[in-house]
Write a structure and sequence with these properties.
Elements (H helix, E strand, L loop, with lengths): L2 H4 L8 E9 L3 H4 L2 H14 L4 E8 L5 E7 L2 E8 L4 E9 L5 H11 L4 E9 L19
Antiparallel strand pairs: 1-5, 1-6, 2-3, 3-4, 4-5
Length: about 140
């Protein structure tokens, strides 16, 4: 939801978390750990983020999980080649990062024929209607 529609009294979010559901992706892309590693490199560069470290794991049967640690936060890609499906998280903080550009690149590079995307403002709990907040003090009634 747009901050302008909510008013300016709200605290600025600490970051933006993009959650992508990618469908119809080619299995050969989703099962190629080396290619997914390259795609993650380019997603970080495209989003103006700094990739600090990366871990890519291929599962024995099929599927890959790729995690990228960014100076600005993280990128995670989890794949199910047999379903043509990938779950992607892209969380970025700071003024220079442009995770929306990185997400657009990931949708294209993973070959999704359709997708859904959510954007969550992190660190500004009262900026989204219906957001629940936990009582940090525990138990009090």
């Amino acid at each position: 939801m747009c901050r302008a529609a909510l008013g300016t009294h709200l605290p600025a979010p600490h970051g933006v978390h993009h959650i992508l559901e990618l469908y119809g992706c080619p299995a050969h892309i989703l099962n190629d750990a080396s290619l997914l590693s390259e795609i993650m490199d380019k997603a970080a560069a495209t989003s103006n983020s700094t990739l600090l470290n990366k871990l890519v794991h291929s599962f024995p049967t099929e599927g890959v999980t790729a995690m990228g640690l960014l100076a600005e936060s993280h990128i995670a890609i989890h794949t199910w080649p047999e379903l043509g499906y990938a779950a992607v998280d892209f969380f970025a903080c700071g003024k220079q990062a442009q995770p929306d550009k990185g997400c657009a690149y990931l949708i294209e590079a993973l070959g999704a024929s359709r997708f859904s995307a959510r954007e969550v403002q992190r660190g500004a709990a009262d900026s989204a209607p219906g957001t629940e907040t936990a009582n940090a003090g525990g138990g009090g009634q």
